[in-house]
Every structure is written in structure tokens, then in C-alpha cells.
Amino acid sequence: MARRLSAPAGMLLAAAAAAAYVGAIDPNEQGNYPTCPFLALTGYQCPGCGALRTIHALAHARIGEAISLNVFAVVMLLVLAFFWIRWTVARVRDRPHRTKAAPAWAIWTFLGFVLAYWLVRNLPFGAALAA
């Protein structure tokens, strides 16, 4: 059982370590992390802009602030948690891994959501999405 759970446990440990680091080193302070290259070059926010600040807020249990900084990142963290739980349960039950990440329609739908979020957060009516 321990061998089957080593990969999910390792992934959880890596994610927890990354979250702890971002929780301890404030991305709101200038110079702690590099600026988003897309933002620096264009002045527009990418879908990930604000994600470090979002993780910092979540690490300090400030859920409302995290959602206001980057709602897409919060949703993606929940999606990642779902897939990690599904993976862990499959390993506990000794079921085989899926060899395909997702059906093509799901990948294209996800890409569509990313592009729509990227576009809307940079338009005047989507300013609330660009914190």
C-alpha cells in the first residue's frame, strides 16, 4: 500500500511545500518574485496573473481575497484537488492509471475557458477579474 501511495503522497508533499513557501514569502512585496513576462511586455494580465498572491491569501485563510485576486486560479486548485483525490483513491483500490488525460472535447473546452478568462479580464467590463 505504501508503495502505491508514494507518488500521490510525494505530489501532495511538493504542493504543500510550494504553498508553504508562497505563504511565507509574500508575493505582494516588490522583488520577492519575478514579474509576469506577459504583463511586463504588454501591460495585460495573463490567466495566471495574481495566482501567487491567490495562493498566499489561501495559505493565510483569506478565501474572499483569494477569489478576488484570481478566481480562475482558485477554481483550478479545486479541480487539481479533485484529480489528486481521484488518483489517490485509484491507487488505494489498486486500479490502473488512466493512460489518457482527458477526452479531446474536455481539453478543448478547458482551453476555451482559459482563453475566455484571459480575454474578459483584460476588457473594461471584466476589470473585476483583474486584481
From TrEMBL:
Membrane-crossing segments per the record: 67-89, 101-120
Protein name as it appears in the record: DUF2752 domain-containing protein
InterPro entries given in the database record: DUF2752
Native organism: Actinomadura algeriensis
Keywords: Membrane, Signal, Transmembrane, Transmembrane helix
Transmembrane helix recorded as keyword: yes
Signal peptide: 1-20
